[in-house]
Amino acid sequence: MSVFGSSHFGLPRLKPLSAKRTQIVSVLDIGSTKVVCMIGRLTPRAESQILPNRTHSIEIIGLGHHKSRGMKNGVIADLDAVESVVRLAVDAAERMAGLTIDSLIVNISAGRLQSDIYTATIDLGGQEVDQADLKRVLAAAAQRSQRQDRMILHSLPTGYSLDGERGIRDPLAMFGDVLGVDIHMLTAERAALRNLELCVNRAHLSVEGLVATPYASGLATLVDDEVELGCAAIDLGGGTTTISVFAEGRLVHADAVSLGGHHITTDLARGLSTRIEDAERLKVVHGSAMPNGADEREMVSVPPIGEDERDQPTHVPRALLSRIVRARVEETLELIRDRIQRSGFSPIVGKRVVLTGGGSQLTGLADAARRVLARNVRIGRPLGVSGLPAAAKGPAFSAAVGLMIYPQVADQETHAAQGGLIASLAGNNSRIARVGQWLKESF
């Protein structure tokens, strides 16, 4: 199924998971550092007290990952290069699983992700709330969010109100005069989604669902209490850092900044005059986000940038290397702190922050985050998944595992927005547009 519905019009709705049958789910995490394809077997299971919304146990049966090419800050810069890496990752996962896949759930970090809360109310006339009323109020809220240049990735009701009383989770069968809803719409620029789908299609695969990277990372790393009480998950990727805020069991806010681990590497390459791959190794082996007294005395060997064998490596104090790393880390964390503050969700996040993504493995990063964000910080690894090799159990694979979890929570979303979306994409003359119009009028 195409991401833009049949003939490219309208986001797909994931088929609900069966509560009785085992299913195979395949996902693709296209990042600036690596591309990961996972194939998992989802088996229905009893409800868990620890991990929220997990209706199925997940066993990874196929895994392929490859160094990313053609991506810059989460955006596709070279279609051919990204397509070839996608093929390699998918091929490796298929070989390991011993099966062929034709569609995938894919993540998106680019497209200037934007979170907005829309509110709508409808008149009930003193009657009890039924399913048709819920559809009507959700459609009214979705209608207010329509924009030509953007597409809705996720639409999650964050709470209902009845006659002005807020904080109602499920108003079905309750009586009242006025029903209201607050709905969280997470949107992305249409062009970014089209390019992503085009890239996957060129590898002879189709996109079954699109998930915002911050949502996926939060699903993989947060435990029940964090999701209920309020918590921010910060995914430090290679080209982008994404933020998601969860509260009362739902995603309530998401954001992304175009800074990541790769920016630290390029700073080191420039500052120490060495090649990108050597700078990456120096960052991983010697880099630290926190100052250390021994850094001034310890010397680090920096390989030369040229090909000339007579060029000798230079030796610099480790403190210089750490200063370069620290400057960029602090800039990124301060930007995240300001974004959380500006979003208005700072009180909901409270003192709880989970860091994940490949960048979170940098030495001293959790301590630096505690200092800059002034919050409790833990490093989040993907939870509750079996069959992952040791190398893929780290924070770098959180987004991919989150995509595996997503089908279990997809039914929390409202798809009332799709009617207007299909119509706006297709132009007003086509059959698709007329279907969209009918959907709009019927619900």
UniProtKB/TrEMBL annotation:
The keyword tRNA processing is annotated on this UniProt entry: no
A GO cellular component entry from the record: cytoplasmic side of plasma membrane
Pfam families to which the protein is assigned, alphabetical: FtsA, SHS2_FTSA
CDD domains in UniProt: ASKHA_NBD_FtsA
Compartment(s) of residence: Cell membrane
SMART domains: FtsA
Topology of this chain in the membrane: Peripheral membrane protein
Residues covered by the SHS2 domain: 25-221
GO biological process, one term: FtsZ-dependent cytokinesis
InterPro entries according to UniProt: ATPase_NBD (IPR043129), Cell_div_FtsA (IPR020823), FtsA/MreB (IPR050696), SHS2_FtsA (IPR003494)
Keyword Metal-binding belongs to the record: no
Signal peptide segment: none
Gene3D superfamilies according to UniProt: 3.30.1490.110, 3.30.420.40
Keywords: Cell cycle, Cell division, Cell membrane, Membrane
Domain of life, source organism: Bacteria
Assembly notes: Self-interacts. Interacts with FtsZ.
Family membership: Belongs to the FtsA/MreB family.
Protein role: Cell division protein that is involved in the assembly of the Z ring. May serve as a membrane anchor for the Z ring.
The name this protein goes by in its record: Cell division protein FtsA
Gene that encodes the chain: ftsA
